[in-house]
């Protein structure tokens, strides 16, 4: 019950902040409150939202992963090479290869954490460097531009020409993101597996005593993140129309900030899909607003750092302590 109350409070605050920020940007810029800008926000945020749907499951289970963006870059390269070797393939084969590779990379993290009893942040710092080092060593930093048409062609699901002549578009990554959000919501909110993830993240020892397997929790959580990072990598290539080894490098901090801001606790046992969506949108709107206001992109990194610090601090405080009461 307390988790639900805290989640609702966090989501309510995020909605208010997003509304206030949107109102401010609407009054200070003439481009923010437009259909074109709104659809651009959705298109550019889709990959981060898919990442967030995987990361929130890991955080709920009481772990953390900072290697997922680099792992997605590995998946992109492996998928591109495999598809070219198979003669081009199609979307079904692309999702199958990317999802399988992502799950395998997630399983590597889960295996190291569970079988060697290493804390998740240490493992994922190590795999972050291993994945990225291997990727740059074997690719030599060379990008892949010769991709199958089905993968590189931009798929527009909806478009509308505004009065100014600009086009508002919804592309394929947005649709895939919607399915990822729904699937994650069903997993953590409407399944016994989701309840076990919450229970283990909130109190691992108590969860063990009632028969919840720590290994199963780790493999499910990191496997789900692996699936999401594989799909996100596939969508990033579709959006950018190329495979660049370091294109997703650094994306992990933006996503982590958004998920923690959305109410997920680094200690585990807390997090919602709606909170993640709102957190990602707030980060995206902030970056978009700074760009429209002509603020240096370096300022955005400072904002993200401040958001991470504030979100982690607040996530360690209970509602009672925020109200001035003893927890």
What is the compact description of this entry?
The chain has 327 residues and is mainly alpha-helical. The chain has helices at residues 2-28, 35-60, 68-85, 91-115, 120-139, 149-152, 172-189, 192-202, 204-209, 214-240, 251-261, 273-292, 297-315, 319-322, and strands spanning 156-161, 167-171.
Furnish the topology, listing elements before pairings.
Elements: H1 2-28, H2 35-60, H3 68-85, H4 91-115, H5 120-139, H6 149-152, E1 156-161, E2 167-171, H7 172-189, H8 192-202, H9 204-209, H10 214-240, H11 251-261, H12 273-292, H13 297-315, H14 319-322
Antiparallel strand pairs: 1-2
Helix pairs in contact: 1-12, 2-7, 2-10, 2-11, 2-12, 3-4, 3-5, 3-10, 4-5, 4-10, 7-8, 7-10, 11-12, 11-13, 12-13
Based on CA inertia axes, which overall geometry fits?
A: globular
Number of strands: 2
Low-confidence residue ranges: 318-327
Q: C-alpha Rg, in Å?
A: 20 Å
Average pLDDT value?
91
- What share of residues is helical? over 70%
| Secondary-structure-derived class | mainly alpha
Could you give the order of strands across the largest sheet?
1-2
Tell me what portion of residues adopts beta-strand conformation.
under 5%
- The run of helices and strands is HHHHHHEEHHHHHHHH
Q: What distance lies between the first and last C-alpha atoms, to the nearest angstrom?
A: 15 Å
Number of helices, where a helix is a run of at least 4 consecutive DSSP H or I residues: 14
Main sheet properties: 2 strands, antiparallel
Question: Can you offer a commentary on this structure?
Answer:
With 327 residues, this protein is mainly alpha-helical. The protein is built from 14 helices and two strands, in the order ααααααββαααααααα. The chain has helices at residues 2-28, 35-60, 68-85, 91-115, 120-139, 149-152, 172-189, 192-202, 204-209, 214-240, 251-261, 273-292, 297-315, 319-322; strands spanning 156-161, 167-171. The chain has a two-stranded antiparallel ribbon with strand order 1-2. A hairpin with a 5-residue loop joins β1 and β2 (167-171). α2 (35-60) runs parallel beside α7 (172-189), α2 packs across α11 (251-261) and α4 packs across α5. The radius of gyration is 20 Å and the shape is globular. The two termini are 15 Å apart.
